[in-house]
Amino acid sequence: MKDDGGSAWVQTGATLGELFFRIWEKSEVHAFPAGICPTVGVGGHVSGGGYGHMIRKFGLTIDYVVDATIVDVNGRVLDRKSMGEDLFWALRGGGAGSFGVVLAFKVKLVEVPKTVTVFRIDRTTDQNALDMVYKWQFVAPRTDPGLFIRVLLASPTKNKTQTVNAKVRALYLGNASDVVSMMAKEFPELGLKMDDCKEMTWIQSLLWWMNYKDVEKVKPEVLLEREPDKAKFVKRKSDYVEKEITKPELNRLIQQLATLDRTGLVLNPYGGNLNATATNETAFPHRHKLYKIQHSSTWSDARPEADRLYVGSLRTTYRIMTPFVSKNPRSAYLNYRDVDIGVNDHGKDSYRKGENYGRKYFGENFDRLVRVKTAVDPDNFFRNEQSIPTLPRKRR
């Protein structure tokens, strides 16, 4: 990372953990609003519209990209000025792999307070989880932009009794007393108390989200670890909710989730300053949704029957959610790549097949992405199973 005051050039091969660590080395009051998984690569995360636990305060990573260097299909190394604004627009949320090889992004840093607050609260269905999650839909997307409240709905089985845990994980860019007072007024169902909260620095909050308990004893150097020998099997899908789910509907959903194996829903609130950027200013189109759902399943069993079990359970959850999420199209988040929503073999029907998943990922921005793709890579050299297609030749 090359520092330039309030901005920095970041190589796309770096991890988010490496980026966070290098920022911390120079300043404890600067940060970058990216994701909280330290081994994720900068290139794909940023170009796909990556987000983190400061999304409601600062928006997306792509809102802070001010320049980029890319190798195009002709082997030229281009920056923002030489590539032009159309391609620069596409690289911010459209997935850079469709257009070339991005070498680096220049990003603006954001200022964070010296003290932030984190808290976690767990509830079961016997402990008011339903009321808490229902009210969360009305509070989390509308409260102070400095507060990010994530909810995880998991489907464990305890003592052979099917149940669902609702786990709240939150970051507040401020002091504990302020957020406790705020939640007492806006969200009494949460039951937040001072004892639930921990004040710490922003870099320590990253370690907390990584599930380190005594963050003051953990050195930030752990952010540099890439964990090359750890591997699990995962399946992710995504949805967007535009209107609050009613309490009876939410109750039925929780009851159905309790019957599935190792399947969870991660609810991430939108709102706040994410909405300050127009939906067509970058390629990311979902800014005005209420919240995003990550359908999540992770397992370590390598047997094919395990794969069928856990992927099958996740697809069941996705089907159950159909009445409650966005429609026409059923929107999806690019960085949770999901081949279930369509793949492309880039044959004669390449555009039509690309439109199947492209409209879900990009909405109306798909049309501009296709035009950019056709202009900069007309022979579709940079392609993958879900890349942006070119226009059919008869329409060029």
From TrEMBL:
PANTHER family: OS08G0158400 PROTEIN. Residues 1-112 form the FAD-binding PCMH-type domain. The keyword Oxidoreductase applies. It comes from Brassica campestris (Field mustard). Belongs to the oxygen-dependent FAD-linked oxidoreductase family. Pfam families: BBE (PF08031), FAD_binding_4 (PF01565). Keywords: Cell wall, FAD, Flavoprotein, Glycoprotein, Nucleotide-binding, Oxidoreductase, Secreted, Signal. It is found in: Secreted, Cell wall. This is FAD-binding PCMH-type domain-containing protein. Coiled coil: none annotated. Its main location: secreted. GO terms for molecular function: FAD binding; oxidoreductase activity.
